[in-house]
User: Fold this.
Amino acid sequence: MERFSTLVFVAGIGCFAIAFLLSMIFPWMSLYGYHGMDYQTLEQLAEKPSREFVELSQKFPESFREHYGEVSQASYAEALQRGRDVYVGQACWHCHSQYVRVVSNEHVRWGAPSSAQEYQNALNQPHLWGTRRVGPDLARAGGKKSNDWHIAHFINPKSVVPHSVMPPYPFYFDEKGVPGKDGIALITYLQWLGTVQAGIPVADRITP
Assistant:
């Protein structure tokens, strides 16, 4: 009995050690391209500023110039990274997934199922797949709503989605609805998700 207990103990330690090693090796392989897929840096993702980013600079020129200067690859990259950081910091991922699953009718609601390649970039690692959908999946959100819609939604979600349970985020905007640095960043990040700039083919972004 004692030998059996020792065997079980050693086997348990061994399984724990293997699981511990694999939990380090697999993410490391994912980050450094040992899966045959190309990895895109932030600079590559921001090579061509989006139409929505340019529109923000034109509609709110003073706020935009104050926080991001002129439209460029560098300012677009800064806004994208800051937007993702704010998104993570506000735990938006807790209620919104970013992963269209291969199950019945997912493609009808959100667009084409997600692929492994689209997560191989600086703005998708660590992944924000999520498991809950208190709010809609955002993997294909980019370009589906206007900048003005996002501003209204952040200031008062119920103004555009009457049954929304999302909390308001008016502190990212002034009393006239002009977005500050984080407001511009959040909208820029959401308008990037699932777009051509994010590496998603146009055909895969259209919801049937």
